[in-house]
Amino acid sequence: MSRQVSRDTAPEVAVRRLLYAAGLRYRLNVPVPGMRRRTIDIALSGSKIAVFLDGCFWHGCPDHATQPKSNTEWWRAKLDKNMARDRETTEHLQAEGWTVLRFWEHENPQMVAQHVIEARRRTPHAARVSSLCQNRDWRAWPRPHSAAPTSASTWARR
Ligand SMILES: [Zn+2]
Prior knowledge:
The protein is of the alpha+beta class. It folds into 2 domains: 10-122, 3-Layer(aba) Sandwich (Endonuclease, Chain A); 123-158, no CATH class. 42% of the residues lie in helices and 15% in strands. The chain contains 5 helices and 4 strands, in the order H-E-E-E-H-E-H-H-H. It has helices at 10-21, 72-95, 109-122, 124-135, 152-156; strands at residues 27-31, 39-44, 49-54, 99-104. A 4-stranded mixed beta sheet has the order 1-2-3-4, sandwiched between helices. Strand 3, helix 2 (72-95) and strand 4 (99-104) form a beta-alpha-beta unit. It starts with 9 loop residues before the first helix and ends with a helix. The structure holds zinc ion. Zinc ion (ZN) binds next to loops.
């Protein structure tokens, strides 16, 4: 496996905290549907958003992927393979209707979280949920029709 890096890297933990604080619920290391042994770092399964926080070295970040001095060719081939795998995973998920968000580990967690939250707001699923919930209050059902509708914006923020 190419994932020698610890999964609980500091940037990933920071991003997770921010998402959680924003009310997003997610699962970690979710298997990619139809692809054995590949996982989504942070998955918002309900809205089919897959977030990847790629380690700079293993995934070939243009700013930080240094060329090891020994076994150069072997390393180059290894990193190329990882990057090809990443592209393949992205394309596969997109074909399955997922929104794929890839970030570098070095990126600011605040910015990363903001992108994810924005994507969550834009997903068709989020829109569908909010329109359903205008007419129904799921927390106390059944309810009389006169019940005040739950505001769409409250739901969209989830
Ligand atoms: Zn980097």
